[in-house]
Design brief:
The chain is mainly beta. It contains four helices and 40 strands.
Length: about 625
């Protein structure tokens, strides 16, 4: 980035959402691609009107652009996939006639409805069925087919229940705005991850906002002038976290738990353009935002320039503090069996407050309460049955993408889990290696940056060469609102993450986590193996000061080793294993050799080695500590 202006963070957010969709992609037989010039592939789906005989519905942002349409008998509906993730259209109400293959980006599926009736449909990879009611939730829609004579007159606006895209013509105020005792009452629905409608035109004056949460996680509505800069603070409302709360120019702030209806105070809404968004971490970035235009018919003055971004001071924190550090020696034992087996693994996603540095606290998103999550260990040809629970007090859906999995999304397609729920999947471990796993729910980078990663080791059939001790180290970075070292409860900074400018870089979740009482321990003469991974975004130049790696398994590939290596590069989302024999006692420092990350930002660990001195290998010629400084 040297010498260049940074990319627009909102453009980067769009790229990040596209990355989410790619991770959730599947594979199957595919329909012929739509020509780029075809109207159906336009970025704007044609709005469905009641009397239309040709309807186009976009599959976009993991939802159908129009949730509910009414059409006459004989009308044709075309679904067009404008997501990078693959979707299908399946209805149990048509006797199997309405069932498409998985559609890639730009592909379409068309169906003509010859009979009256109500046809509910869904996307198979992105919906789930309630075992008790038989109803589908998630990416769903409804087609109502009526006799032409009984169809309601066309209004030119989306059908009832349709979700209008942000750039579309605003839904008329009469559909979701009422005037009660002189107060303009605005009703909005919130779900994953959208408001309905996404754009509003209102009149100035006394106004009240009502938000109805029809999703599976808490949501919020914040309304503030577009020209104002967001300030990020971290507070609690009831039992859930408000991670983003704009304080400059905030007009409305309403929070709603699952299934609840919440009302704002009555405000005097002035002419202007406002942004609305849900600012629970990750929701806004996943697309839960929109626009409110308030006009009295008089041209508005030009908006004032956006205010400079002001960083909030960390809030004092006196609540419970979890020990989020995963100990370096917390490694499952080697597998001794010679035959494959079915292995059950249980993980739980938890959102907890832990200590990031001395007096600095942070709300971590974790697997099993620590960063990294537990190290998993299986053998080639094992069948893994993985159960993922999301703690009931969570604020976000979570999932898992294991890089050791062969299958769509690495398992993320099958494990999108709301708070209080459990999902399960199975996969066969086909390739030996050391692999990262991480959460892959929207917004994926936010989930990863908040600590949701770990490693899984797939041993070769013959096992690994024996060593005396094994250690587990995963590097990550932390993007906090305030500067490094400021005490209190730090908030996540989305903009710093987009620029990859962390305040902290750590091993195992905390500054100097693997030092002091948590230092790793070994003895002279022992052979050790360290599994090292990168859970977040910055590659690691992994080095142990005072040691040379006898063997390095680069990028986690266990079939071939490099020998006599000083420093090994571990890529983002990658791993490696290093082995060396201890010849001399003392403290050996683990670092990212991009040394500002280690010495200034926290990526250091200690391997304490006890045992007899070995003067043939290492000894002082002049007395140590004579005033000269010894660096690296």
């Amino acid at each position: 980035m040297s010498g260049k202006s940074p990319l627009n963070p909102r453009f980067l957010v769009l790229l990040a959402v596209v990355a989410l969709a790619v991770l959730l992609s599947g594979c199957s037989s595919r329909a012929p691609p739509v020509s780029p010039a075809a109207p159906a592939a336009s970025s704007q789906a044609a709005p469905a009107t009641a009397m239309s005989t040709e309807i186009t519905i976009e599959m976009k942002n993991i939802q159908f652009s129009q949730k509910e349409v009414t059409i006459p008998v004989g009308a044709t509906v075309t679904w067009v996939n404008t997501d990078p993730v693959e979707h299908d259209v399946t209805s149990d109400d048509t006797g199997g006639e309405l069932k498409s293959p998985l559609l890639k980006t730009g592909e379409k599926f068309t169906h003509t409805f010859a009979k009256t009736g109500t046809y509910k449909y869904h996307c198979t990879p992105h919906s789930s069925k309630n075992a008790e009611t038989g109803e589908f939730a998630g990416m769903t829609g409804v087609i109502r087919v009526v006799e032409a004579a009984s169809a309601p007159a066309s209004s030119g606006s989306p059908a009832a229940g349709a979700v209008a895209p942000l750039a579309a013509t605003p839904i008329p105020a009469s559909s979701n705005v009422k005037v009660v005792d002189g107060v303009q009452v605005v009703s909005l629905e919130a779900s994953e991850f959208k408001f309905a409608p996404m754009e509003l035109k209102l009149k100035p004056g006394k106004t009240k906002f009502i938000i109805v949460n029809k999703g599976v996680v808490p949501h919020e509505l914040h309304l503030y002038p577009e020209a104002e800069a967001r300030q990020i603070t971290e507070t609690h409302i009831g039992e859930h976290l408000r991670g983003y709360a704009p304080t400059t120019g905030l007009v409305v702030g309403v929070d709603a738990r699952v299934g609840e209806r919440s009302e704002s105070d009555i405000i005097d809404l002035r002419p202007g353009t406002y942004e609305m968004g849900c600012h629970i971490p990750g929701h806004y970035e996943a697309g839960m935002k929109g626009r409110v235009i308030v006009t009295d018919g008089v041209p508005s003055p030009s908006p004032t320039p956006a205010a400079a971004r002001v960083l909030a001071t960390p809030a004092p924190y006196t609540g419970p503090v979890a020990d989020i550090v995963r100990k370096g020696a917390d490694v499952p034992p080697p597998i001794t069996r010679k035959e494959p087996a079915t292995v059950r693994i249980d993980l739980e996603t938890r959102e907890v407050v832990g200590e990031l540095a001395d007096g600095v606290y942070y709300r971590y998103w974790t697997f099993n309460g620590t960063v990294p999550g537990p190290m998993l260990r299986v053998r080639v040809d094992d069948t893994v049955e993985l159960h993922l629970k999301n703690a009931p007090d969570g604020t976000m859906p979570h999932s898992i993408d294991l890089h050791a999995v062969t299958g769509p999304g690495g398992g993320a397609v099958l494990t999108q889990t709301p708070p209080g729920k459990e999902k399960a999947m199975t996969f066969k471990a086909l390739n030996p290696g050391v692999y990262i796993y991480h959460c892959a729910s929207p917004h994926i980078p936010s989930h990863v940056a908040n600590g949701m990663y770990g490693m899984i080791l797939v041993e070769p059939k013959e096992g690994l060469p024996p060593v005396d001790r094994e250690f587990y180290v995963v590097q990550g970075e932390w993007y906090t609102q305030a500067k490094r070292g400021e005490r209190g409860l730090q908030a996540f900074d989305f903009d710093k993450m987009q620029l990859e400018h962390p305040e902290y870089v750590t091993f195992n979740g905390k500054v100097a986590a693997l030092t002091g009482a948590n230092a790793m321990k070994a003895k002279v003469g022992e052979k050790v193996r360290i599994y090292i991974g990168v859970g977040a975004f910055l590659p690691s130049s992994f080095h142990v000061i005072g040691e040379i790696f006898d063997r390095v398994y680069p990028e986690g590939a266990l079939r071939d080793a490099h020998r006599d290596v000083q420093t090994t590069m571990v890529p983002a989302g990658g791993a490696a294993a290093v082995e060396f024999t201890l010849e001399v006692p003392g403290n050996y420092i683990l670092v990212d050799h991009s040394l500002t990350r280690a010495l200034d930002k926290g990526a250091v660990g200690i391997l304490q080695v006890e045992g007899p001195e070995n003067p043939q290998v290492f000894q002082a010629v002049t007395p140590a500590g004579g005033g000269e400084s010894a660096g690296h």
